[in-house]
Amino acid sequence: MRSFTYERATDAQAAVAAVSRTGAKFISGGTNLLDLMKLGIEHPSHLVDISRLPLREIEELPDGGLRIGAQAGNSDVAADTRVRTRYPVLSQALVSGASGQLRNKASTGGNLLQRTRCPYFYDPAAGCNKRNPGSGCSAIGGFNRIHAVLGASESCIATHPSDMAVAMTALEAEIELLDADGSVRRVAITDFYRLPGDTPHIETVLRPDEMITGVLLPPPLPGRQLYRKVRDRASYEFALVSVAAVVSTGQGTISEARVALGGVAHKPWRSLEAEAELAGRPATMATYRAAAEAAMRDAVGQGDNDFKIELARRTLCRTLAQAARSS
Ligand SMILES: Cc1cc2nc3c(=O)[nH]c(=O)nc-3n(C[C@H](O)[C@H](O)[C@H](O)COP(=O)(O)OP(=O)(O)OC[C@H]3O[C@@H](n4cnc5c(N)ncnc54)[C@H](O)[C@@H]3O)c2cc1C
Ligand code: SF4
Q: Which residues, judged by CB distance below 6 Å to any ligand atom, belong to the binding site of ligand 1?
């Protein structure tokens, strides 16, 4: 590991000022960043520790939503009674991620900004446009079982690994960002992450002098929320495919639905196509199949990951059926 300097920030504005120094990075729980530093993938010259900032609170919003502070731990958010009762899809997604120990350390802001799990990204000897722009993509034509089937490019086929962000996408969360000049802006989570295009190393719209200070959840839709994660092991494993669904039904008809998929794209993938197939249609398997077809219509496999297309369809059908049955 290369040498670096370290400071612990005591207020958010000072933290943003400190990170605007060249080569500086925030560290929160460190569960992703420290691994990347040990491997020589990330090499900040200065670390600004934001783990003690007073941003751990989960607060009621006047509109009936919740604001989750960026430092709120993944375990604390998952266990919060308001999250469990009003946003169960978020609680389920969080509990399905990593291990208990990791969730105790991991923060909301850090989870949103964790890096891809593409094995070539973690191998300094491999060509990887995300790690080293212009060096190629070893996953294209290589081992690509865990890679993207939607929204990928010729430069990068990596997926975003966060479970939490998939649930937040179905909940239409907004990310709150603090700038070095003190201004705050909010970005819809669907606009926060970028598709790879020919600049896969630029993953979000976060500016270098900004910090995530919180996530705002709007009042939940009525109906049932479900998160289903399919993975190689029952626990302590990233998703091959996941589905976050919020489904509202009445008299055998789906009135409204929100659908987001994980493990299939460079970002948590909201499927407006699936949602359009569901709204106003009978709550039947034929409707769920049509939604799943619509969601995966533009999917392209890379060989090893071809199975994900059918896996995503089936996972979506099953999740929708279960959510609609109980809503
Ligand atoms: C073995 C293992 C298994 C895992 N399995 C899963 C899984 O199944 N599902 C899943 O979703 N995750 C999984 N994870 C990932 C884990 O959830 C993340 O490592 C964790 O959420 C990152 O949070 P952190 O606070 O530790 O971030 P850090 O490692 O501290 O930071 C991550 C990045 O975010 C930046 N950052 C942190 N906070 C802010 C902020 N407020 N504003 C701006 N930038 C910020 C840092 O600079 C850094 O670049 C796993 C991790 C491991 C090691
Ligand atoms: S898929 Fe993306 S992260 Fe993986 S090797 Fe290709 S460029 Fe790198």
A: 25-33, 50, 70, 74, 97-98, 102, 105-107, 109-111, 113-114, 161-164, 211-212, 238
Show the beta-strand stretches assigned E in 193-292.
210-217, 224-230, 241-250, 253-262, 269-270
To the nearest 10 degrees (0 to 180), the angle between helices 285-295 and 307-326 is 140
Amino acid at 31: T
Residue burial 259-284, b: 16+ Cβ < 10 Å; e: rest: bbbbbbbbbbbbbebbbebbeebebe
pLDDT in tens, 150-161: 999 999 999 999
Note the pLDDT tens digit of each residue in 206-248: 999 899 999 999 999 899 999 999 999 998 999 999 999 999 9
Going by alpha carbons, the residue nearest to atom 4 of ligand 1 is 98
Query: Over the stretch 58-94, which tens digit does the pLDDT of each residue have?
Result: 999 999 999 999 999 999 999 999 999 999 999 999 9
pTM of the model: 0.98
